[in-house]
Amino acid sequence: MDLKIDGEPEKSSPLELLLKAIERGDLPPGTRLRETDLASQLGISRTPVREALYRLHAMGLADHGSQRGLVVAQISYDQTRQLFAVREGLEGMATRLAAQHASGHEIDVMKQMVKNDIGVTDAARLSETNKQLHRYIANASHNQYMIDALNNLRIHLSLLPASTYALPQRIKSAQQEHEEIVAAIAKGDGDAAEAAARRHVANGYRIRLEMMRV
Q1: Residue 207 in 3-state DSSP?
Q2: pTM given for the model
Q3: Which one, 36, 137, 182, 189, has least CB within 10 Å?
Q4: Up-side HSE of residue 42: CA atoms within 13 Å toward CB?
Q5: Which pLDDT belongs to residue 113?
Q6: Rounded Cα–Cα distance for residues 186 and 94 (Å)
Q7: Of 1, 22, 57, 17, nearest to 158 (Cα)?
């Protein structure tokens, strides 16, 4: 287990470092969270690590394992349904707000991000650029409450196994959906932007369910 903490901001709390590790996949679902090991890697005492693990458990990101101690949580079918129901609403609203408030520079960046993905077939790269685009759109909403809510949601989504981009057919459809979303934002059309974002999330959920049934 490597938390890759080199270069992390010195003021990052143990909780923040663990959240980043979970989101990056350094601590995948089922990973045993040992206080001693984590404290050693973070270079701190066990007490703040214990407090961070308590917070992870309270947030639903850690569960009690079959043995003593906590493990990174695994997402059930029903939890996946709940997550995507919330995600569709939040992503839709964030995209509507981006259509209303995004600057010309922000729109140009979004267009370039979408353009950069054209022809790319590497699932890992596309998964990462997809996260970056959605994060950028949320930031372009210029609503801190929305940004915070989506950041929290994405950490939970990172507990899902693999990526929908592992399915070749999803690569082309997601690219088209991203183009529709950004085009609507560029036009300042909040209705179209929200509808496109909701379709994008709903289609991603459908693909996710197909993967879970395998």
Answers
A1: helix
A2: 0.86
A3: 36
A4: 27
A5: 98
A6: 14
A7: 22
